[in-house]
Amino acid sequence: MVSIKDIAKRVGMSPSTISRVVNGKKYVNPEKRELILRLIEETGYVPNKSARDMVLKRTFTVGIVIPDTFNMFQRQLFSIIEHHLESFGYHTLFFFVKFEGASEDDCLQRLKSEKLDGVILLHEIKSPRFYEYLAAVGLPCVIATFAAAEQRIPSIHVNEEQAAYDAVQHLIGLGHRKIDILSGGSFSFGQQRADGYARALHSAGLSRDAGREVFVKSYSAEAGMYGMRELLLRDRDFSAVFAATDELAIGAIRVLEDEGIKVPDQVSIIGFDDIDISSYIVPRLTTIRQPLGDIGERTATLLHKRILGEKPAESDVVLPYELIIRESTARV
Amino acid sequence: MVSIKDIAKRVGMSPSTISRVVNGKKYVNPEKRELILRLIEETGYVPNKSARDMVLKRTFTVGIVIPDTFNMFQRQLFSIIEHHLESFGYHTLFFFVKFEGASEDDCLQRLKSEKLDGVILLHEIKSPRFYEYLAAVGLPCVIATFAAAEQRIPSIHVNEEQAAYDAVQHLIGLGHRKIDILSGGSFSFGQQRADGYARALHSAGLSRDAGREVFVKSYSAEAGMYGMRELLLRDRDFSAVFAATDELAIGAIRVLEDEGIKVPDQVSIIGFDDIDISSYIVPRLTTIRQPLGDIGERTATLLHKRILGEKPAESDVVLPYELIIRESTARV
DNA sequence: CTGAAAGCGCTTACAG
DNA sequence: CTGAAAGCGCTTACAG
Q1: What is the pLDDT of residue A150?
Q2: Gap between the Cα atoms of A61 and A81, Å rounded
Q3: Is B281 in the same domain as B171?
Q4: Would an 8 Å CB–CB cutoff place A217 in contact with chain B?
Q5: Does residue B280 form part of some domain?
Q6: B32 touches strand D (CB under 7 A)
Q7: Using one digit for the tens of pLDDT, what is the confidence trace for A138-176?
Q8: How many Cβ pairs closer than 8 A exist between chain A and B?
Q9: Distance (Å) from the C-alpha of residue A207 to the closest C-alpha of chain B?
Q10: Which residue of A303, B57, B69, B241 lies most exposed, with the fewest beta carbons within 10 A?
Q11: Helices A246-258 and A221-234 meet at what angle, rounded to 10?
């Protein structure tokens, strides 16, 4: 591989000068610059990133911490984020974390061995050690899709509770009174969406009933099937269900269909997230749309600013969501 | 950040020795090793990856070249690959490439600036320059999901043509005679799947008809809707369609449903890939399952071996696929 | 505008 | 088993 020294030798100049033109610094004689540029082209010289990172003490890469079992919403989100990050000149490294506690420590360990420029959390890390580390080394961080707990880490998200409230209001507006909920654990949004559900019921004068609530392990279609079977086992006396996630909703519809229960004729289902597939399935899913593109762009931009040392005023960005009414909900 | 020298100073030994214990080399006095290990623990020392990469002249990272518009099958595949790669101790860097020719050059450019240990192609690169570069620098490479063209790059894939043949045979076995095809461009598998379709038709004594074939731009559900509308515009005289991709099939079903045409009662649809969602939608999709897990694992393993310098005998691994009969196909 | 020199944090023969 | 020394490829004051 050709190095900066090789180039220097060939043009009879010092490595310093070559470095200057490679990095587009000024104070270089225009003619020499031309000459050097031509030679770089000819030889196919590319700077050695490791050497550069080493002296600069940064790596131009940001880590994205994401659940091992990421759902489609998170999948779509991370490719948007990675796209923007790339346009800012960053590499991105993925850190998958499982739900077991040990996995968070592993993740932290891996994080330490990289000299990241910044990190984005798409997964809600619990371990305080994690946040202590971030603070200790002053590693810029942005949380996407979750409100930060107490820590002073900026986050980009939607008002989950209010959105869920609106979703359930939509059901109530359609005349539904017997509304079940299918949500999941592990993440705070599962709880917040359940909170919005409860508040909507309350504000409509409906009483909450533990028999109408099931919390499954994850947020997948598989989990949705499991949860709906459980709901069916308990009591068939519901006319609508609020699924905390589109995938949960898809699994729920699957089970209902298998039982010969028609959606939305007999049961209305509303999801949350508006993943790609939701507008193609039969029936098209009524859901809450999170502004994926916006979340992704702002997350990447905010992190970039923090890496550059800017301290943006806004530390908690709450973005608007949207109720998307399609075919899976109907008047009771 | 604490460096190897700091540790050396604190224990009164040389950096060489510290390096040896950090890298688990032998020839170190057991007691000193203990002492050093303890200090590393205490100080939270982590080796500087950039420095290490630089002297070792490798980066322990592999690049994954993937289409910008990757579909769900590719999405699932790359997370499996990344998972295995991580277990081998590699980082992975994504290189998204668009369909425009220029994008391949960009990708090549980026590839050059990284000192990758290896690369995996999930996207069918056309540019010969790309392969020339790989050969020139001796960069290990494995292709997944495509048969390599002439180049001597090992690849892991399924017999696309034969699988498509089987898919269409399934339709024929169900009594269908008027079978349309919905496929896409840009990738060789789109053509190979179409070839299998043609051969199945031929072997059943059915004549091929350009009016029954539509090729759309991509392989998404969106494209599937577009393609099915086109098919409908031409002639409603078909009882089955072979969609080259599950997502294409999902879009096709969507349009049929909107037109009041029942699947599979009036039209049978078969897909290809068996993406996650295919077993949850209504109707469940009949499709060809590609052995995702196996492809991912073998791809990662094969690349790892090549990086280590082993030249495995098998350069073209053809894996078995499986016809998954579900609900979207029925007797005519 | 330009070069000599030092240094980033590690590894690896080489000589004990 | 261990240390001194050189070197990986770059950048950056510093002195012209």
Answers
A1: 64
A2: 13
A3: yes
A4: no
A5: yes
A6: yes
A7: 889 999 998 877 667 899 999 999 999 999 999 999 999
A8: 83
A9: 33
A10: B57
A11: 50
Put simply, whether the predicted model's pTM sits higher than 0.85 gets the answer: yes
Q: What are phi and psi of A149, to 5 degrees?
A: -70, -125
Rounded Cα distance between A154 and A156, Å, is 7
B167 lies in the same domain as B286: yes
What is the average pLDDT value for chain B, to the nearest integer? 90
Look-up: residue for tokens 């006095």?
B29
CATH number at B119 reads 3.40.50.2300
Contact criterion met (CB < 8 Å) for B282 and A281: yes
Say yes or no: Cβ of A48 under 7 A from any atom of strand D: yes
Into how many domains does chain A fold?
3
Predicted confidence (pLDDT) per residue in B116-147, tens digit: 899 999 988 888 888 888 888 888 999 999 88
Quick one: which of B315, B305, B289 has its CA closest to B77? B289
Domain that holds residue A217: 160-290
On whether both B207 and B256 belong to a single domain, the answer is yes
Percentage with pLDDT > 70 across chain A:
98
Residue A293 to chain B, least CA–CA distance (Å) = 15
Question: What is the spatial distance, in angstroms and rounded to an integer, between the CA atom of A9 and the C1' atom of C4?
Answer: 15
A227-254 confidence digits (pLDDT tens): 999 999 997 789 999 999 999 999 999 9
Q: Who among B46, B50, B113 is closest to A112 (CB)?
A: B46
CA distance A277 to A279: 6
> Based on the domain organization, do B182 and B225 belong to the same domain?
yes
* Cβ of residue A291 lies below 7 Å from strand D: no
State the distance between the two ends of chain B, measured CA to CA, in whole angstroms. 71
Contacts of B86 in chain A (CB under 8 A): 96
- Which of A82, A282, A326 to mutate: most B Cβ within 10 Å? A282
User: Do B26 and B146 have their domain in common?
Assistant: no
